[in-house]
């Protein structure tokens, strides 16, 4: 699979515009014993979105889709953490503005990030000054936020919500691996944390792609314990949640124009394809992974991108552009998260992973 | 205020059994411009609950209310972190069992904790094997979980959810301050992280106290930057959310039998009383704080308890016992969380805080 698989002429997805119909009589209730998918009877609309990325990401294959690329000079703050907060704020404010709204219209901000105590989100929320719910599921944070916000809007509890997340290469390296100054070497199966923020405005009324269902993931752990090999750790969680979606909805890969995972990277994507094949599903050309899309081979990012901002930025630009243009009528977006900490791995634990998904329809 | 204020004969709350009625015509929508409260038209019931605490907490004033006290020997695991995970699991499984349910009945687990990447929750969720949403708002995690689960159950998306959180003195000290081996001294305005887990089962049908509304907090930062003085940092957030509740519902402190905050401790509680007085509300005898209840003066915990498990354990034992017995007909439970990390404080940031609240009625 080429890292430019889903760019321009390489794409040839089968269009299936018919709605997803649940198989059971009471479709909105997640059932014990395996049912993990919630269906929205009043699907929220995506009315605003914004991806803000760093210099390196702007030079990659997705560069032309991102709404804003921040140059190295612009991101130079007193600390990398402040740069990360600013990037998240830019995405949140950009998404609200692009949706034709103001902060005063927003009922709720749902956000999370990779830093300890999700401080980027907490400090950004301080500036936004709307009710805030902190969410954490590592690189699956964006899809967890979208699922929760969709449920709250579907129920009529709120009218407009912003879902947002961010990651930053330098803050993530320092926290999860080594400070950049150490100049440590990376194994060839590693991924590169994307410096990017993504934000999505969901609204009860308005025009835009709809979130029609959400699949809430279980924690899956196949015993992987190498913090550099996130793709291998997370692929089984993506397989588990995708299988739950297909099972709950009675659909198959062919019913989606695009199945996009968060940041499995090249290796993790290959493992996911294999795991799904074992379950009887051929993901085929419909499937791609945001981590494989964001950098090209010359950027020395080995298996591709990772980080909460990876799928958040790619989905809020390239993927939703495709939905808006009619290229994709139905997208399954399954971000994937690894729930370990450096400490838990040092203590001998393996890496528990999760994947939450949402179905986006034109 | 004595730390035993709300024990036995010291209590004299005014009972107001009439339901909370929202002031506006469309009460279920959080409105821009200040409305932060969601009302549940099909309030979920608390059908199971469990508090599991450590030795020290078991010897405190709340000891007789906690459903399970784990002795030091029982908690001795290879690492403090494993002990914390086991304690959270015991609370989750105990709450499910006490609710007459099994794991297979549970549609969703919502959990979070204080450790980096909320690993206690992630690893516990791996064992429970139900769909899992990670949540983080520091010591306000329990009320955020209850608010989200209530909204999902109210909407009919799920039937049974478990909300859970945990904290552990030794893991929190090591992560936020110093490893215990350093034997560092604590300033007199400090609190003591409670070693405790609390879990609540919410159900769409069944008998038990109901969660009738939730107030989603905004991030509030009054410029406090001393990590040892959490009460002072968090009190303004509690004041902001309580004022939002009173404003959104047209109620006043006298309309609640008990107003209980998470873990402001003695100093923070005094500050909250003062801040509310400035806003025209006298909290009076109805108000207490879980942090002031959990230890007595001989236990050398200065301002009292703190940590996500503090209010989670006290509410799931003492407070809900009081609701079950008819002592309290309406409780406002507002946990409070400080959203900084040690790193953000080292970088010169102040401490942003938040308080999410739920209304529990008999």
Describe how the helices and strands are arranged.
Two copies of one chain form a homodimer.
Chain A: E1 37-39, E2 45-53, H1 55-58, E3 68-69, H2 72-75, H3 80-98, E4 108-113, H4 119-128, E5 132-134, H5 141-154, E6 160-167, H6 169-176, E7 192-193, E8 196-203, E9 210-215, H7 230-249, E10 258-261, H8 265-278, E11 287-289, H9 290-293, E12 305-306, H10 308-324, E13 330-338, H11 342-346, E14 353-361
Parallel strand pairs in A: 2-3, 4-5, 4-6, 7-12, 10-11, 10-13
Antiparallel strand pairs in A: 1-9, 2-8, 6-8, 9-14, 13-14
Helix pairs in contact in A: 3-4, 7-8
Order of strands in the sheet with the most strands of chain A?
1-9-14-13-10-11
Low-confidence stretches of chain A: 1-34
Average pLDDT across residues of chain A? 89
So how many helices of chain A?
11
Helix and strand pattern of chain A? EEHEHHEHEHEHEEEHEHEHEHEHE
The helix-and-strand class of chain A reads alpha/beta
How far is it from the N-terminal to the C-terminal residue of chain A, by CA?
27 Å
The oligomeric state of the chains shown is homodimer
* Total DSSP E strands of chain A: 14
Rg of chain A: 18 Å
* Main beta sheet of chain A: 6 strands, mixed
Helix share of residues of chain A? 25-40%
Percent in strands of chain A: 15-25%
